[in-house]
From TrEMBL:
Keywords: Cell membrane, Membrane, Transmembrane, Transmembrane helix, Transport. This is Maltose transport system permease protein MalF. The keyword Lipid biosynthesis does not apply. The gene is malF_2. It is found in: Cell membrane. Belongs to the binding-protein-dependent transport system permease family. Residues 91-302 form the ABC transmembrane type-1 domain. InterPro entries: ABC_transporter_permease, MetI-like, MetI-like_sf.
Length: 310
């Protein structure tokens, strides 16, 4: 006689519960030692997210700080419909920012890594040290230095342009110029990380593969296309994904150089902060939750993609 399916499922669930409790009881020492870290994680990461989610359903601001009231989804409606420049405008700008930065970083990093991987290149250590410096310098210091360099009147970039007979560029007054100025700074700062990753991948490729391809009559381009790029993909993909996430939620460069220019150069994260500065805490919380959900969605999509690829 075959047992009912529901009975089998319930029996399996009880076994799983017993396994969980027995595993916790068996490894309680490990759970005890990780408890302080879990408490810190709860206080610094999980609680702020939960509190922001709670706050987004109220109207807490500088005028209703102690006796704010429940308003339901009103703050989320404002996020998507009542912002000065539009949520989707800022989201598209953030996506464009991420794609442009990622493409420039990968192309420039690949070019530099290929140069540093030349066998007979002298002074490799010096070149590597110089090229890694932008990544090693704290981002806020680099952003403030570049902000001074982009100054229209006394910035070194406009002085250099004027010295060769060109007109100075209003880097920090024109939204489009300010956006590309921030792209230049971010590419300058982030490219060394990608370069080091690619250089490590290049040095792990067996040189005998290139020698065999050369014997078979392959051109340098053929070797690059059929050997270098395929063997670099497993190394580059995690770095590209990590860089994409960091670039998508970039804050310091945009804010320190332009402060958003009233929404004209804002990314999604800087606009959320500027919303917070207006003392509308609930609207800022709703904005933060939307950003959080976008990042969660991207993370889940990336995990599924990696799983399917494996």
């Amino acid at each position: 006689m075959v047992e009912p399916k529901t009975k089998i499922i319930s029996t399996n669930s009880r076994k799983n519960n017993l396994n969980i409790f027995s595993r916790v009881n068996r490894e309680k020492g490990a759970y005890f030692f990780t408890l302080p870290g879990n408490i810190v994680l709860l206080i610094t990461a999980i609680f702020p997210v939960l509190y922001s989610f709670y706050l987004s359903f109220f109207n807490m601001n500088v005028y209703h700080f102690s006796n704010f009231s429940f308003v339901g989804l009103e703050q989320y409606k404002k996020v998507f419909s009542q912002l000065d420049v539009g949520f989707f405008t800022i989201l598209i700008r953030t996506i464009v920012w991420t794609i442009v930065n990622l493409l420039l970083q990968v192309i420039l990093a690949l070019f530099l890594a290929l140069l540093l991987n030349v066998k007979d290149l002298k002074g490799k250590g010096i070149y590597r040290t110089i090229l890694i410096l932008p990544w090693a310098i704290p981002s806020y210091i680099s952003a403030l230095i570049w902000k001074g360099m982009f100054n229209y009147d006394f910035g070194v970039i406009n002085i250099a342009l004027k010295s060769i007979g060109l007109r100075g560029v209003e880097w920090l007054n024109n939204p489009i110029c300010a956006f590309f100025a921030c792209v230049i700074v971010n590419v300058w700062m982030a490219t060394p990380f990608m370069m080091i990753v690619i250089l490590g991948g290049l040095q792990s490729i067996d040189t005998e593969l290139y020698e065999a391809a050369k014997i078979d009559g392959a051109t340098p381009w053929d070797s690059f296309k059929n050997i270098t790029i395929p063997l670099l993909k497993p190394v580059m993909f995690p770095a590209v994904v990590l860089t994409a996430f960091i670039t998508f939620k970039q804050f310091d460069i945009i804010y320190l150089i332009t402060e958003g220019m009233g929404g004209k150069t804002d990314l999604i994260i800087t606009y959320a902060y500027n919303t917070f500065k207006t003392n509308n805490y609930s609207l800022s919380a709703a904005f933060s939750i939307v950003i959080f959900l976008i990042l969660v969605g991207l993370t889940i999509g990336n995990m599924k993609f990696l799983k399917e690829k494996k």
